[in-house]
Amino acid sequence: PLSNSFFTDPVIVAKTPSETTRDLVTGTVSYRPRLDLALVGEYRGDFLRRDSVTDLPSETTWGLPESTSTHTGSLSAYYRPVKGLKTSAHYSYASTDHPAYGASFQNRHEAKLLATYTVNNRWGLTSHAILRRDRNDEVRKYLVDFPFEPLSFSLAPLTARSTNSENANIGAWWVPCKGLTVGANYSYLHQEVEQGVLFTGVFTGSQAASQFSSRSHVYGVNASYALSQKSDLAVSAQQIRSSAAFTPTDTTFTVFPGSTTGVKEITEQDTVITSLSARGEYRFTSALSTTLEYSFNDYNELKSAYSSYNGTVHTIVAAVAAKWLPRGS
């Protein structure tokens, strides 16, 4: 127990620390049917064991499963059809028997695609995409029993949670002349989460099906130039356009007065962040160098509820770095 005269109750019971043991088992099989094609299959077993946990949380224990086992199988293909082009595709499926937390998954599907193309080290393209689908049909939530003394919990009705996300990026770079490299990239990020949400942690009947969604577009350009063997410059610009909202279904609660009306409006955001930066470095010797960097960040929230966060930030950073090796090393 913890004792503190500033607490309402000067003696507070502390939870017993939980010790976790983790075992990993992996197996890999690879096959190359052709010189330009390789196939790789893998199994991964992740086994967790915990002590000092109980089915329901209490003042002294954590409400977690005693064991969690996750089995993951994956298949990858690597293909180089022509000189300078590299491609790969990856798919995996994972299953968990006792998800430990509300955001944990029971089943996960994930796919990855990657492609790069380079021509004589003068220019190139890169792209990748990741798609993920998570689902858990047995999300555990706990209610605080009333009255609150002594503190105890009960299990709320199980809910389901699903998460879908898509991330993609494409970029290009070019070396127009010796020492100069310019590049541009675009990224897209999207996530949607659907699950039942409790609007009070005390009573049943306070749950509403809800969705959280977020979406971002990221645009960027950059350039770097080596003035000499001792100095170089770099500049970059980036803009992020993002939106997010928490949207519960229209629900009026009967156990306690209240509803979900207006929740989306007070959580919805539409933000534009613009960044500019410039950096210079000079190396006096192999052991001594200095850098000077300037950055500008502008935050613009388009929703009036959060417009008070709008503003700009200017940052200037100067640094000197030195390194040395012990004599005789």
Secondary structure: elements and pairs:
Blueprint: E1 2-3, E2 11-12, E3 20-34, E4 37-50, E5 53-54, E6 62-63, E7 67-79, E8 85-96, E9 107-119, E10 123-139, E11 142-144, E12 153-155, E13 159-177, E14 180-198, E15 207-226, E16 231-248, E17 252-253, E18 258-259, H1 263-267, E19 269-283, E20 288-301, E21 311-322
Parallel strand pairs: 5-6
Antiparallel strand pairs: 1-2, 3-4, 4-7, 7-8, 8-9, 9-10, 10-13, 11-12, 13-14, 14-15, 15-16, 16-19, 17-18, 19-20, 20-21
What is the CA-atom radius of gyration, in angstroms? 27 Å
Strand order of the largest sheet: 3-4-7-8-9-10-13-14-15-16-19-20-21
- How does the overall form come out from the CA principal axes? globular
User: Helix tally?
Assistant: 1
Structural class: mainly beta
Helical coverage, percent range:
under 10%
Q: What multimeric state do the chains show?
A: single chain
Low-confidence stretches: none
Question: How is the biggest beta sheet arranged?
Answer: 13 strands, antiparallel
Compressed to H and E, one letter per element, the order equals: EEEEEEEEEEEEEEEEEEHEEE
Tell me the span between the first and last alpha carbons: 53 Å
Mean pLDDT reading: 90
What fraction of residues sit in β-strands? over 45%
Provide structural commentary.
The chain is mainly beta and 329 residues long. 2% of the residues lie in helices and 67% in strands. The protein has one helix at 263-267, and strands at residues 2-3, 11-12, 20-34, 37-50, 53-54, 62-63, 67-79, 85-96, 107-119, 123-139, 142-144, 153-155, 159-177, 180-198, 207-226, 231-248, 252-253, 258-259, 269-283, 288-301, 311-322. A 13-stranded antiparallel beta sheet has the order 3-4-7-8-9-10-13-14-15-16-19-20-21. Strands 1-2 form a two-stranded antiparallel ribbon. Strand 9 (107-119) and strand 10 (123-139) form a beta hairpin. It starts with a strand and ends in a 7-residue tail after the last strand. The mean pLDDT is 90.
